[in-house]
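2024-03-11 09:14:02 INFO worker-7 job=invfold-0412 stage=load source=structure_tokens
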């Protein structure tokens, strides 16, 4: 799964949560589950879906807005809900 320009990895499903890391444009991240949180506009489509991800390059684990993550299929068909 590829990420957008620079992806913040947050401690919870919203922009008000602190950053625990990031992933560079084009980085591959692992998605373990999804949840619902803050509504985010922009990206591929506006959404309140947030993915729990790990950046294998840094080990940072947390949440990122699904709208900024490019996947082959809808994340809700790929991983379970958190």
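2024-03-11 09:14:09 INFO worker-7 stage=emit residues=82
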């Amino acid at each position: 799964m590829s990420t957008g320009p620079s992806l913040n990895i947050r401690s919870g499903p919203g922009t008000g949560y602190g950053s625990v890391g990031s992933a560079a444009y084009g980085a591959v991240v692992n998605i373990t589950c999804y949840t619902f949180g803050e509504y985010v506009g922009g990206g591929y489509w506006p959404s309140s879906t947030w993915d729990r991800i790990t950046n294998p390059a840094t080990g940072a684990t947390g949440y990122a807005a699904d709208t900024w993550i490019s996947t082959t299929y809808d994340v809700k068909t790929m991983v379970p809900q958190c």
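2024-03-11 09:14:09 INFO worker-7 stage=report msg="The CA atoms of residues 66 and 74 lie 9 Å apart."
2024-03-11 09:14:10 INFO worker-7 job finished
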